[in-house]
Specification:
The chain has about 325 residues and is α/β, with parallel strands linked by helices. Helices cover about 35% and strands about 25% of the residues.
Amino acid sequence: MDIYEAVQDYLSRGRGGSLATIIKKMGAAPREAGAKMFVGDDGRIFGTVGGGCVEAEVWQAAKGVVKTGKVKLLHYRLDGRIVEDEGMICGGNVDIFLEPVLDKYKNVYAEARDLEKRGKDALIITRFSESSLSKSLVGADGRVTGDDPGEEIREHLGSYLEGGPVIGEGILVEPTTSSSLFYLFGAGHISQYVAKAAAMVDFNVVVVDDREDFANRERFPEVRDIVVDDFRHVFEQLHFFGNEYVAVVTRGHKHDALVLEEVLKRPTRYVGMIGSRRKSALILTHLREKGFDEDILKSVHAPIGLAIDAETPQEIAISIVAELIAVKRKA
């Protein structure tokens, strides 16, 4: 469950919580500016701001924010002494903004989640004082959800979208981060490990297969969604906006070729297909003969995964997810 999904879930049940956002980072702190953590009013944590002693203190402070309903700004200076005393491996300085989640802004959280999933840019503006809090979301097209963001935000929308979080006197402006939606075609043994590893590093995994006995919550408890349908028709219910990651790991060459052909008709961020070099070459040649553009075919990661001489399903899964991370970080 991602951050805003968790927020929506709590608010829909009449509960609350607190959002923690890293607004500034210097040095070797583990998470970048913009990283978030949601702490429910029951103490459950979704996301992370870096782990260790910092996260423990943020968790404690977040519970206080839930009770008071007031924002809080935390400053952590992870100097050498603190790092050594706590057994941490990272230093650096971190500033964290804590705010209560409010039911009246559930439409803002919902819109933020939707835009992130679709890979669309937007700004979340939070204005605050000791006694008040207001929120608004402004899409790249200027559409506003929530409160009026103010004329300055409208005038400088482009520059804010291109930067990281900015905090000023009584205001926090932060661009949304595009969610990494990962379509995993195939629900076999390798896919079980791929799904687990991908979910662990914050990919929103959707498993797609035509066999309900394989594609189910018992085998894939950590994924965001499971779609069971014939591979020829399943694309009618899948959405592609250009920011999606796709791994083709079905049970045979025939299904791999069918799925890859359909995927390559759509915009994506990453496409990989499992199999030997010979199998990959045969399928790509088949698609070339069907008229697919050479540049599109060259973009396919086939064989899939980083070259680490992986053999077991677990090792293959690690190589695949490592490649996803490399593309995500533009390595």
